[in-house]
Amino acid sequence: MTWLDIVILIVKCIVLTLAATTMFAYFTLFERRLLARLQNRVGPNRAGAIPLPGGQRILGGWLQPAADAVKLFFKEDVVPVMADKWVYIMAPGFAVIPALIIWVAIPLGYWPDGAGGNLLQLAEIDVAILYLLAVTSVGVYGIAIAGWASNNKYSMLGGIRATAQVISYELALGLAVLGVVMQAQSFRTDTIVDAQTTLWYIVPQFLGFVIFLVASTAEVVRAPFDLVEAEQELVGGYNTEYGSMKFALFFMSEYIKLIAMNAIAVTLFLGGWKVPGLQTLADAVTASFGANIGNAVFGLTSLGAFLLKVTVLSFVSVWVRATLPRVRYDQLMDLGWKVLLPLALINVALTAIVNVILPDNIWISGIVLFVLGLATLIGATILSRPKYTSSQVTMVKNNARS
Amino acid sequence: MLANYAFIGIFFIAALIFPLIPLIAAWRLRPARPTATKLDTYECGLEVIGETRVQFRVQYYLYALAFVIFDVEMVFLYPWAVAYNQLGLYGLLAMTVFIVILVFGLAYEWKKGALEWV
Amino acid sequence: MTSAPVATRDLSIPSPGDITRPALAGEKETMVLNMGPHHPSTHGVLRLVVELDGETVVNVAPDVGFLHTGIEKSMESKTYQKSLVMTDRTDYLAPLSNNLCYVLAVEKLLNCEIPPRATAARVLLVELQRISSHLVWLGTHALDLAAMSVFLYGFREREQILDIFELVSGARMMTSYFRVGGLAYDLPAEFPATVQAFLDIIDGRIDEYEDLLTHNPLWLERTKGIGILDAEAAVAFGVTGPGLRAAGISWDLRKDMPYCDYDSYDFAVPIAQNGDTYDRYLVRMAEMRQSARICRQALQRLHDLGPGPYVTTDRKIAPPPKSEITHSMESLIHHFKLWTEGFKPPRGDAFVAIESPRGELATYIVSDGSPKPYRVHMRTPSFVNLQALPYMARGYLVADLVALTASMDPVLGEVDR
């Protein structure tokens, strides 16, 4: 470990932090534009618009996140006089730091360079999956502490409810990830990505993927599970009393966690940075332009594929937010404990049984698991439908009198 | 291999410093004109009624308790997950017994209403 | 998954003081939550003092009066024609309904003949107003339950309706288009085509909203069995409108005490059985479709009637057209008298009730023979419907409180006046 290595490492850390922050900023823009389009309106399209000679403007809105950040810098920050001052100030830090350090263990791509290659991952640790789950769990402290420290009934309620929600869904999350670990027989994220060269884990672990998506949406406290911060009910929940930069940090932590969850889902279920045909493409480019360019193509394409997959999952996340009503709190807890947890256990059982009994052909066991997972999902949907009394609207007094 | 953890440590420090920079910048840049009304606790525009630190509902504690139990179960499941292939049928049965015991626990909690929110 | 109401026959309506008083010895400690006037969810400046036992609502005290502007009193110092504009501001989501109720009451005092063209136009516009008001209800109700997109889709249709109002009267919301004797101005030439264009698309759009919500499991979970207002309690509180009809009681003033020739139109009255939030939702969606049906018939009737007078020819009530003033002395004098003094109805009183989108809206006018009303009182549906809120909310959760308040569709302008 020479000094140069340490400097390179520090530069990598800064780059990753800035990348995470920029991804967050443009994710907010992406969400606002997409939400707007789904709601028959246009999102932010003025900030940073470049006027063309013909009178039209392009790239409208790309500076909106910067404008919002600048605004937040200049807002007055009101610390309620009854709040626990230092805990109140530290709470956003407790929320942001775990959100940022998740990114350490996610492979963003692969840049081959002859001997081995450079995995675009900051730290290749042997227990990456456990690390990811642990950091996600630590993230709940920020919310709990923020709710408590504000000394506001609403904030406290919001904080505790958020905490209970997050820990309830962590179980389903962990068990869904367990299924992937069983498939790949390793805790390392890069090994899991490599194991998906033939078949992405979304096929054998379809049930696990669905559970992971639902559980991660609830973990990040996002629609339709965002009752905790629902403006309509509790006026902001745990961040009612936060303004200006501290609120921005909470906001940032939520979105960075969301993107990180999507990135983990891509790594575990959607093949990470792998794209079918990537190796052949890189070989073709190497044949024509030489090894350096070929490696660069491989690296950049892998990174691009990863980001594209994360974008697809983000699109789904925003789409769900635009469409579905909010789930009430007791229904949320019922979903987490009585539906997702048993389903996740069934997923583990199915994976174990199929992988022990069936031969080692990944395609056969994959398709069998997919079919079993799908059947379980359909069965669970049918079983967990509540029985309602029927509602009929009768039309009376139908016609004119005379 | 252990050096990777050092990387995490350095990134942790970077992540620690990162929120401080905008906080300090904002502290220097923003106006600070507190008035009594601004510093008051928010309760929809009126005076605060009642105590803030009200008694917790025990339901939160029950959820946390159940979480601890199942989290420990998960922790035991993880090492088995990477080795179950080699353990064959015996390992499978042993783990099935373990999980079934805990599933009984979940079913008992469910029946007794410890998982009900209201 | 929801607890049933705690007290099924407790019809009391608490006041805020009942809830905020300190607990007596032996009474359970409960938390008091103030969903105050400044809150993103309550529909207007409604303050709800909620007593919670954990998550469950034990009692709710609605505290109203934050929007009181003395409309009824102000009307006593304006002539009849001028105090019409104050009625727009009571139920600000259905101004034309308020106009209609007031104008019908004054016409009853005056015993005035209304030309059929004006009556048909009134019915058409009031039914369009009903659709517009229900679209706001749907949007805000869905928004309270976080189905945000329905809000924007509903407002897209409402924009078309507001454009129609702007076409006829010049104003989108506070139109004051109905005047004593008929309408303020004649319907413009583009009116039939514009309304027809709207009526062609509205049924498809209502189908879209129903696709998004009616069978959505999350919507069902949030609205089914919530805020049950059974028929007996509804009648005991005096609830009218969709709240009453969702409880199973078939009472619609357009059918049972018809006004403006409503008994000559073919339409149905939707009723449901359970009286919960979902049923109120279904009833209002069906009402929107029936309103569109009435609008089509009214449009056809306007077409069949052909051009004609849009306001009564009694010059003592309605001003003459401006063109007549230049060559007719009587018209000039009538115009002068109407603008300086106003018409003087005979001594007496009149009570007229109509079916506004929220229920029974009634105006009671007492005249002492002077050009200004002696007393105007508006029996507004939201004020009476709001009484049922504590009964409906007891035993449910705080999140349900938001949903069921939205389903009662209160408009604070008409609660407080």
Describe this structure in words.
The complex is a heterotrimer of chains A (402), B (118) and C (417). Chain A has helices at 3-38, 64-74, 85-101, 128-138, 140-149, 153-184, 189-195, 206-219, 231-234, 244-269, 278-289, 291-323, 329-357, 362-383, and strands at 50-51, 57-58, 110-111, 118-119, 394-396. With 402 residues, chain A is mainly alpha-helical. In chain A, strands 1-2 form a two-stranded antiparallel sheet. In chain A, strands 3-4 form a two-stranded antiparallel sheet. In chain A, helix 1 packs across helix 10, helix 1 packs parallel to helix 12 and helix 3 (85-101) runs antiparallel to helix 5 (140-149). Chain A is globular, with a radius of gyration of 24 Å. The model of chain A has no long low-confidence stretch (mean pLDDT 85). Chain B has 118 residues and is an all-alpha fold. Chain B is built from 3 helices and no strands. The model of chain B has no long low-confidence stretch (mean pLDDT 81). Chain C is built from 18 helices and 9 strands. Chain C has helices at residues 16-20, 71-75, 84-88, 95-110, 116-144, 148-169, 191-213, 217-223, 231-237, 242-246, 253-256, 277-305, 322-325, 329-340, 381-385, 389-393, 398-408, 412-416; strands at 31-35, 47-53, 56-63, 178-179, 182-183, 269-271, 348-356, 359-367, 375-379. The model of chain C has no long low-confidence stretch (mean pLDDT 89). Chains in contact: A-B, A-C, B-C.
Gist?
The complex is a heterotrimer of chains A (402), B (118) and C (417). Chain A is mainly α and 402 residues long. Chain A contains 14 helices and 5 strands.
